[in-house]
Amino acid sequence: MEINFDKYEGTGNDFVMIDNRNDFFPKSEVKLIANLCDRRFGIGADGLILLENDPESDFKMVYYNSDGNQSTMCGNGGRCLVAFAKKLNIINDSATFMAIDGQHYATISDDAIVSLQMKDVDSVNNEPNYTFLDTGSPHHVEVVSAISNLDIKSQGAAIRYSRLYGSAGANVNFVEQISEATFSIRTYERGVEDETLSCGTGATAVAIAMNYIGKTNSNTIKINVQGGKLEVSFDKKDSHYSNVFLKGPATFVFQGKINI
Among this protein's residues, is 74 annotated catalytic? Predict the structure, then answer.
């Protein structure tokens, strides 16, 4: 079977996009999805996203990590899917879509800057050496110095597979403060099992965590990722974070056909 696909990236976090509104894609074939994401034998991506019909929204997002398994929310993937939906003429400059963690709202500008509303955060677990929270996906956040010198793959894997998070694991973010409201991060993503150039739910988790532990008083925070720059904004009341938005570019890379 020949399928059409589009390739998108959001600050270096890249995805295979497939229009599955006709429900033709074999979603249970884990090996196939992993092969499509393979950078040597497939298209190459951090994940694969299906755009599907949804009765309550403009469309539905079904997200798979590059290991072929369906996963939790992906912020950059959601932003890229909004750009893909606009390319398909499903939406104009705003959208609502359903994801695994519920309904999301987003806007997209003429220059493909997508602002995506993330889930509210009601619980932040602050420990002596790290902070843990769920922003649609579970995230370990750890403040470090000399972030450029870290071996993210080995250090991230050690935490991801530790007893702390059990068999489910967690994404791991290392953070260095640059200014009062600017932070640089590097992220190890479970399912990819390596460092990625950007992680949207990770950037969101870092922004909220840094505000929660008092590293910044700002509610609009700039996040430097390996693949570019993102911005996270939110409203805070006590320890509740609402109106959380992840903002950044969502870029079309190429389109093609592949036989599966």
Answer: yes
